Structures are given as structure tokens and as C-alpha cells.
TrEMBL record:
A Gene Ontology BP annotation from the UniProt entry: fatty acid biosynthetic process
EC main group: oxidoreductase
Residues that bind NAD(+): G14, S20, I21, Q41, D63, V64, I91, K161, V190, K191, T192, L193, A194
InterPro entries, A to Z: Enoyl-ACP_Rdtase_NADH, NAD(P)-bd_dom_sf, SDR_fam
Binding of substrate, residues: A94
Catalytic activity, reaction form: a 2,3-saturated acyl-[ACP] + NAD(+) = a (2E)-enoyl-[ACP] + NADH + H(+)
Name listed for the protein in its UniProt record: Enoyl-[acyl-carrier-protein] reductase [NADH]
Active site residues according to the UniProt entry: Y144, Y154
Species assigned in the record: Lentilactobacillus parabuchneri
Superkingdom of the organism of origin: Bacteria
Gene3D superfamilies per record: Enoyl acyl carrier protein reductase, NAD(P)-binding Rossmann-like Domain
Keywords: Fatty acid biosynthesis, Fatty acid metabolism, Lipid biosynthesis, Lipid metabolism, NAD, Oxidoreductase
Documented EC number(s): 1.3.1.9
Amino acid sequence: MSGFLDGKTIVIMGVANKRSIAWGCTQAILDQGAKVILSYQNDRIKKSLERFVPDDLDLIECDVSDDANVSKAFEEIGQKYGKINGVIHAIAFADKDTLTSGLVNTTKEGYDLAQNISAYSLISVARYAQPVLNNPASILTLTYFGSTRAIPNYNMMGVAKAALEANVRYLASDLGSDGIRVNAISAGAVKTLAVTGIKHHSDLLKESESRTVDQKSVTTNEIGNVAAFLMSDLSTGMTGDVVYVDKGVHLI
Ligand code: NAD
């Protein structure tokens, strides 16, 4: 298909299943003509992907909990595909106790794990992707409103998202002279695997839907379309930004 991403190659990290925000991004980016490479966390996720991902999408393993994996994945990407035009980082994790116990009860281990996977990994991805990124290129991550407001039950993930958004600004400043932009989409709540880890997540989803401007939650397709724009040269004027794609939830 032909579109505003014709000729671009984009790496998308974080598709777990068809509900994943990263899958909404994948479809929108394919619709605009790009080649897509998906990275997956482990064999369990790979098996899930093999059930619905078309054969012509390449899959590369990358568990971001270890820098060596991130380095190896981008080396492999460089060797197989040459220079790429963008990376989408749609990855977050906190263990169940940390997510459900209230921030005041967060252990050091729980804090470190959530920060490592959900915020530090963007730095690691940017560092190891840098040698294979073209000029211009785009890095995008996914964040949530709980970074700036104390959203009930979002707990430690809100702290990790605040760090992630600061990472976006500093990385944008570090990498700007190489023509690499770094932005985040602050997505509205959508029912994905990650959300089900949040205590009373159905209340969060309902509350969020009721606060949209038209009482209809944002879809992963709508998030994906903005991701496609941010991957494209139409957005070369934007870097270090957090763009809300939440149907107005943040307004109220
Ligand atoms: P999801 O569960 O579909 O995706 C999360 C992904 O993170 C999975 O693919 C998982 O394999 C990956 N992951 C976790 N640990 C990893 C590791 N060590 N190495 C590599 N990958 C790892 O859920 P989602 O909601 O699509 O989440 C994608 C991003 O969007 C996350 O950053 C999430 O915080 C963010 N986000 C989600 C919502 C929402 O309401 N769903 C709202 C705003 C932002």
C-alpha cells in the first residue's frame, strides 16, 4: 500500500496480542506503506504473535530487561535491514504487588523493576538504535496521564511514566543533532493485557470513557494513526513532546 511512510522501515516493540496498542500502531503504519519489524519479549509472546501476525512481518527477540539483548537486537536489525527510520517503544511492566499495594508500600526491588522496564529501557533502546537510525528518524514511546496526576490505583506506574516523560525530553535534546526526534503519546485508557494488572482496572476504564468528550474511549487504531504521523517526516518539527491521544480525558 502507498502512503506517507512509503520506503520507511519501522521497528515496533511491544505487541503482545491484537489488543496491544503496539498492534494498533503496526496496522496504521503498514497502511501508510512502511515496512515493519516487530520485536517480542520472549517465546511465549512469539507464539501469540505467530497466531495473527502476517508472515511477511519479521520478528526479532528483545527482552529489554538486559542491555545486552537490546544491543544484540539492534545489531541484528542493522545487519539484516540496514538503516531504519523509526522505533516505537510500547513497553511497561511492574510486578503485581507493586501495582496493587499503594505507592507507600513499594519495595526497592519493585521500584527498580518498574523503572527499569518501563522508563530506563527507552534510554537503552535509543542508545542501541542510534547507530542504525537514519537522519531524519523518530523514536516514540507510550505514556499515561498518571505521570502528572495521582490516578487511583496507577501507583508506581505513574512514577515510572513521569521518569519516562523526562527521558523523552533529555533524549530529544541529546539526539537532536543527529536528526533523531523523540516523542511520547499519552494514550487514553484502553483494555489491554497491561491494564488488567491495575487494581480495579474496569473502574479506571469506565471512568476514563466517561471523561472523553463523546463518552467513547479512544481506540488503538486512533492511537496508531497519530503514531504513524509521528514516525513520518510530516512531524520533523516535533521533538521532546508528550502528545495526548485520549479523546480529551486530560481536559477535564
Ligand atoms: P500490552 O500488554 O499489550 O503491551 C505491553 C508490552 O510490554 C507487551 O508486549 C510485553 O511483552 C512488553 N514487555 C513487558 N516487559 C518487557 C520486557 N522485559 N522486554 C520486552 N517487552 C516487554 O499493553 P499496552 O497497554 O498496549 O501497553 C503498551 C504501552 O502503552 C505501555 O507502555 C503502557 O504503559 C502504555 N499505555 C497503555 C495504556 C492503556 O490504557 N492500555 C494507556 C496509556 C499508555
